[in-house]
């Protein structure tokens, strides 16, 4: 039995990618901890505190030589996994090097820095998915920049837009986070090294220089002081991940509605057996969109855990820091699952333009009510014009009919009649919506290039 849907063999593949699961696996954590200890040994050897042979000896340790089950049982006694890890690693080193291993460091140093290495790998995966999603969504928006569909407010028909415009607004949601990924990594992926209370007393006046060299070896940011109780970077990462999930979830929510039987304007890419029902064999439920909404619903609570953990007392908190171990991997897992499904949608969402056009006519011209009122306002005044349109709208609801026909049947001057006829044309709404698509797509391409560069550099 798994205590997390993300770790479960049954539900995990639905909510997170295998690649992300591998990054946060126990084996990957051990490898990251060994890399951290190796970097520490390099930095300390350069400062003359440990033998130069120590770092190569650490690099030679086989991560598969550790007994994970035994380490887990020892962690339950020690309270943290680093203590049994250090003891086990020391047994794998030459006797003359063993005393220098982990010199002057503390549990949180190794744990936090190893996590930073894992998160860096995780962000590279995220950047790759984001680049693919932006490419797919941009193609979708451009292909449908002039495809008319209904704009909805409060889930009600409001006024015509284009499907390209609708997609462009969701691209902008994603861009808000995608363009912040590199700055987030630069500011939040930091090397932790402070020793027991953050002062690196055992390293004397060489402590600050060792911290800089240690960070440089790992290609991580270097904090100005021990980050044992500086948890803002972790909370910032959590907020970014939750925000990204919410941005994708907003698009998923749109798709759930647009794919409903009554609307039927889009459908998810067909995969045999996907989206079925155990009771209703005819169903094709929107699985990808459901995963997006689920991730967006779950992620904010996990991010809240990280904000709570910022209240870290004195030089080392009890419990608050440990809570991060649960929240961060789950946030990355949820994000990976949402990104995988968003990519599937961006690259294969099926669009029914004819149904979109048909749905525009469902309200018998009422979606042009504002345009009609605006057309009559110059001659009637705004209040009278809108009262006239409102009365016609009530008549349609009570008796049926078309708004344009009802308004044109009234006593109108020739110029009013011409203005009304123009108000019921789709072209102005299409042109107004389409003009916003290209700038967003241009920005998306620039951000996508930045993401690909980040992957190469990270």
Any guess at the CATH architecture of the largest domain? Up-down Bundle
Q: Portion of residues in helices? A: 55-70%
Strand order of the largest sheet: 1-2
Average pLDDT across residues? 93
| SS element count, helices | 20
Encode the helix/strand succession as letters: HHHHHHHEEHHHHEHHEHHHHHHH
What radius of gyration results from the CA coordinates? 29 Å
Low-confidence stretches: 275-283
Terminal Cα span: 36 Å
Stated plainly, the CATH topology of the largest domain is called Fumarase C, Chain A, domain 2
Instruction: Tell me the count of domains.
Output: 2
At the fourth level of CATH, the homologous superfamily of the largest domain is Fumarase/aspartase (Central domain)
CATH class of the largest domain: Mainly Alpha
Main beta-sheet strand count, sense and barrel state? 2 strands, antiparallel
Approximately what portion of the residues adopt beta-strand conformation? under 5%
What class, by secondary structure content? mainly alpha
Number of strands: 4
Outline: elongated
Q: What would you note in describing this structure?
A:
- The chain folds into two domains: 13-356 and 452-457, Up-down Bundle (Fumarase C, Chain A, domain 2), CATH 1.20.200; 366-423.
- Helices cover 64% and strands 4% of the residues.
- It is built from 20 helices and four strands.
- Strand 1 (148-153) and strand 2 (156-162) form a beta hairpin.
- The longest helix is centred in the N-terminal third of the chain and has 37 residues, at 107-143.
- The two termini are 36 Å apart.
- The relative contact order is 0.12.
- The model is unreliable at 275-283 (pLDDT under 50).
């Amino acid at each position: 039995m798994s205590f997390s849907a993300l770790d479960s063999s049954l539900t995990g593949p639905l909510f997170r990618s295998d690649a992300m699961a591998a990054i946060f696996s126990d084996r990957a954590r051990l490898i990251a901890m060994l890399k951290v200890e190796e970097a520490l040994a390099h930095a300390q050897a350069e400062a003359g505190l440990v033998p130069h042979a120590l770092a190569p000896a650490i690099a030679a340790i086989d991560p598969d030589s550790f007994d994970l089950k035994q380490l887990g049982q020892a962690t339950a006694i020690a309270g943290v996994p680093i203590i049994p890890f250090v003891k086990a690693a020391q047994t794998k080193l030459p006797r003359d090097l063993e005393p220098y291993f982990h010199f002057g460091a503390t549990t949180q140093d190794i744990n936090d820095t190893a996590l930073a290495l894992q998160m860096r790998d995780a962000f590279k995966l995220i950047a790759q998915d984001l680049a693919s999603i932006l490419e797919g969504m941009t193609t979708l928006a451009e292909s449908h920049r002039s495809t008319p569909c209904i704009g909805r407010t409060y889930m009600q028909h409001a006024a015509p837009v284009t499907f390209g415009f609708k997609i462009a607004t969701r691209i902008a949601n994603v861009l808000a986070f995608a363009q912040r990924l590199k700055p987030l990594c630069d500011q939040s992926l930091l090397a932790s090294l402070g020793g027991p209370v953050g002062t690196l007393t055992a390293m004397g006046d060489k402590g600050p220089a060792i911290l800089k060299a240690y960070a440089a070896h790992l290609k991580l940011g270097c904090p100005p002081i021990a980050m044992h109780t500086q948890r803002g970077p972790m909370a910032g990462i959590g907020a970014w991940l939750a925000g990204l999930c919410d941005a994708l979830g907003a698009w998923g929510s749109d798709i759930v509605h647009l794919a409903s039987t009554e609307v039927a304007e889009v459908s998810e890419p067909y995969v045999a057996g996907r989206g079925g029902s155990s009771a209703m064999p005819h169903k094709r439920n929107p699985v990808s969109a459901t995963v997006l909404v689920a991730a967006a619903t779950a992620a904010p609570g996990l991010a809240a855990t990280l904000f709570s953990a910022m209240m870290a007392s004195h030089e080392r908190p009890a419990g608050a820091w440990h809570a991060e171990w649960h929240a961060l991997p789950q946030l990355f897992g949820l994000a990976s699952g949402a990104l995988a499904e968003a990519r599937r949608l961006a690259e294969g969402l099926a669009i029914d333009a004819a149904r979109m056009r048909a749905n525009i006519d469902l309200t018998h011209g009422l979606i042009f009510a504002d345009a009609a009122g605006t057309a009559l306002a110059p001659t009637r005044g705004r209040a009278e014009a809108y009262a006239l349109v409102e009365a016609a709208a009530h008549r349609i609801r009570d008796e049926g009919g078309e708004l344009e026909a009802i308004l044109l049947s009234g006593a109108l001057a020739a110029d009013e009649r011409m203005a009304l006829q123009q108000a019921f044309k789709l072209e102005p709404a299409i042109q107004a919506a389409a003009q916003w698509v290209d700038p967003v797509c241009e920005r998306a391409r620039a951000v996508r290039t930045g993401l690909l560069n980040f992957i190469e550099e990270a």
